[in-house]
Each structure stands twice: as C-alpha cells, then as structure tokens.
Design brief:
It is a single chain. The protein is an all-alpha fold. The chain has two domains: 113 residues; 28 residues. It is 72% helix and 0% strand. α2 packs across α4. The longest helix has 61 residues. It is elongated and about 145 Å long. It starts with a helix and ends in a 10-residue tail after the last helix.
Length: 186
Amino acid sequence: MARDRERERPEKRTARLDAPVETRRPLIRRPEMDSDTFGRFAETFARFMGTARFLLYMTAFVAIWLLWNWAVPAAYQWDAYPFIFLTLMLSLQASYAAPLILLAQNRQEDRDRVIAEQDRQANSRAHADMEFLAREMASLRMALGEVATRDYVRSELRSLLGELEEMDRRGRDRLEGDDPDREWDG
C-alpha cells in the first residue's frame, strides 16, 4: 500500500516555486568564458587607458592618420572623405572601452565592498574587545579598593617598627633600672 502511494505522488505533484525549472538545450552552445579572466582583462585594459602612455599612443595615432591623409597624394589616402573612417575607428574604440571600464569599476566596487565589510567586522571586534577591557579595568579598580596598597603597608610597617623600638627601649630601661614610667622617688 505504501508503494502504491509513492508511485502516485509524482503524478499528483504540482509545480513548486523552489524546484528548478527544466530548460531545453539550445541548438547552438554558447562559448563559455571564465568571468574572472575577462574581468582581469577589463581591469588591465582600463588601467592602461588611464595612463599617459595610452594618451601619447592615441595622440600619435590620430596625428599620423591626419598627416597621412593631408600630406600624401589622393591615390594613397585611405580616408578620402573628411576623416569619416577616423571617426568610425574612434567611435568603435570608445564603444568597446566604455563597457570594459564599467566592468572594471564594478569589480573594484565589489572588492571595496568586501574590504569595507571586513573593516566593519574588525572594528566591531575591536569595539567589543575595548568594552571588555574597560569592564575588566573597572572590576580591577573595584577589587584594588579592598587591597592594601604599597604605601599603606609601608606606613603600617613604620608604625609597627616605631612601636617595637619603643618597646625595646622600655625593656632595656627596665633591665637597667632606669624605668621612665616609674615615678621619681627623690
């Protein structure tokens, strides 16, 4: 009977929200690329684009392009119209550079977020440690209020030493017969 129920369950099941949906396989497989590798490339590219070297290379490229298309005979020019091909090349470069720079910025934001969270946790632990140490110091101060200090012990020992010296002096005086506490019989 239990086996019959188990066989019936899959047929009576309804679609659940937490179950993965079966997907069909695509006819053409998409190329798989490690996003971390592509991200590192984007960061390297964005880092290079933010250097003076890139600006010098780009300036030299544009200057050579302009000089070539102005100075050489029309038969050897590759951009005969007023630099439409140059505009196309620069637009193409910008259209690829912008998403790569944004990707690099997103990766940096993710790293910054992780570092900020680690800093927050470290600060939280340090704060808890400081509170613990402050409570410990307060309890030590309260306990020290009941403990004799060095100065107190020294003063007590000095007074005891003074009493012992006084008792010793009286004892010697009695032995010698010279008792200062006795009244003088003159």
